[in-house]
Design a protein that fits this description.
With about 200 residues, the chain is mainly alpha-helical. It has one domain. Helix content is about 50%, strand content about 10%. The chain has five helices and four strands. The strands form two sheets. Strands 1-2 form a two-stranded antiparallel sheet. Strands 3-4 form a two-stranded antiparallel ribbon. A hairpin with a 5-residue loop joins strand 3 and strand 4.
């Protein structure tokens, strides 16, 4: 005699929902990754704005020039015209969606004053450079790694949030399998993107 197991409709429904989990988790984690990427940009902007990254100070002559140009925060490195100018250093970071995550990168738009691409200006200030002018003058620009420091700050935040995020995801998975509700999954995505600007721009 052959005995065949009989599965309840509830069991079948749960198994069907389990099969959907990989895509649902992928979507949730992509939201988490986007929140982390935008978090790096916001740490970059906040650190420059508040001048609390320990970046090398500007020379007196540079500060005096910014004062003459009526720049806000003339003693703050990398701020320039700051938040009010779209093509300023502080506003140049963008994010791009990749297959398995997000890329944070500097815009290729031209800087409002120098005419250099912001992406080139980023390399100059992040890593420092030495320029020999036609006049014979040598100009040395020290590294002011605001992006690296912003990345470090965001990683510290992520490590602190890791246990809480893992706990929330497990709870959301259990809710979905048992009830088909996605409220907690949506809440995780909403929390990851809440209060973040959209930096996905084509420029």
């Amino acid at each position: 005699m052959t005995v065949k197991p009989k599965f309840s409709n509830s069991f079948r429904a749960k198994m069907a929902r389990i099969q959907k989990l990989p895509q649902l988790i992928d979507d949730t984690m992509m939201g988490h990754l986007k929140g982390s990427a935008t978090g790096i940009i916001e740490e970059f902007k906040k650190g420059i704005r508040l001048n609390n990254m320990g970046l090398q100070k500007l020379k007196d002559a540079t500060v005096a020039g910014k004062i003459r140009s009526n720049y806000p925060k003339p003693e703050t490195p990398l701020y320039g015209l700051g938040d009010r100018e779209e093509r300023s250093y502080i506003n140049m970071m963008r994010i791009k969606k990749l297959k398995n995550g997000y890329k944070v990168y500097p815009s290729k738009a031209k800087h409002h004053k120098s005419g250099l691409k912001l992406s080139d200006l980023f390399k100059i200030h992040e890593y420092g450079c030495t320029m020999n002018l036609k006049s014979g003058t040598t100009v040395r620009i020290p590294p002011r790694p605001a992006f690296f420091k912003a990345y470090e700050r965001q990683m510290i935040k992520m490590r602190k949030d890791k246990k809480e995020t893992s706990r929330d995801v497990k709870k959301a998975i259990t809710e979905f399998i048992n009830t088909a509700k996605r409220d907690l999954l949506y809440e995780i995505e909403r929390k990851d993107l809440m209060n973040h600007e959209d930096y996905e721009k084509n420029d």
